[in-house]
Amino acid sequence: xxxxxxxxxxxxxxxxFGGTHGNELTGVFLVKHWxxxxxxxxxTGLEVKPFITNPRAVKKCTRYIDCDLNRVFDSENLGxxxxxxxxxxxxxxxxxxxxxxxxxxxxxxxVIFDLHNTTSNMGCTLILEDSKNDFLIQMFxxxxxxxxxxxxxxxxxxxxxxxxxxxxxxxxxxxGIEVGPQPQGVLRADILDQMRKMIKHALDFIQNFNEGKExxxxxxxxxxxxxxxxxxxxxxxxxxxxIHPNLQAWQRSCVPCSxxxxxxxxxxxxxxxxxxxxxxxxxxxxxxxxx
Length: 291
What we know:
GO terms for molecular function: hydrolase activity, acting on carbon-nitrogen (but not peptide) bonds, in linear amides; hydrolase activity, acting on ester bonds; metal ion binding. By secondary structure, the protein is α/β, with parallel strands linked by helices. It folds into two domains: 13-224, 3-Layer(aba) Sandwich (Aminopeptidase); 229-284, N-terminal domain of TfIIb. It has seven helices and 13 strands. The strands form three sheets. It has an eight-stranded mixed sheet. A three-stranded antiparallel sheet has the order 8-10-11. α5 (134-147) packs across α6. The chain starts with 12 loop residues before the first strand and ends with a strand. The model is unreliable at 269-291 (pLDDT under 50).
């Protein structure tokens, strides 16, 4: 995937979201720290606002209260009449849209970084929502280069039928940041350090951009979602197999799976082959290189 023309409008307003999922603690910890002392995230001429998105879920250390906050920023939910009968996260989404949006409006925040953890061994991962967003392609290339030799993967969630109404999607330039592996409700120092560096490099890129630095065309490699592959299930709809031991180990995420390779194992220890080539971050991802 390559970048072409980048907008010349300076970036003015940036938000850093933590706690969209209340049990993903790295973003929660960093945002709370920056709310107390935001010196390291400030850049000249740039408004940077750290923000806890789902405080009730953070307090209970759970993913969400009523529904996933990271899936309700669509026009239907944002347009509902505010009522106490609405799910908590829908009401919270409307509040966030009012503070940082409105979505698809010139007055919305320029960039929103949404901080997440995963139990998967995805390492440092940047999530891109639009393959034609040259500004973010340049930013991701800058972050990836700055982090080297630490790997940094880019996950493109653009898909014709699988839609994501993410919390960050109210911004002109939405950026998902996901770092793992880290168990839910746990804080790891190495994961925190990696996420902190990703934010630093991202803000450095914005500052360089605002100061007029030119960035030549670049290419990035992305992991693109092709389809979702469910677990094998029995006639009752119950899961009938688990991830094969050869694929389960932490160290074996992001490895190629050949056609016919056993990717699951049932309780009788028989391998279950998925006859589709895939490049496994989690089931359903394929590695794509676009020029």
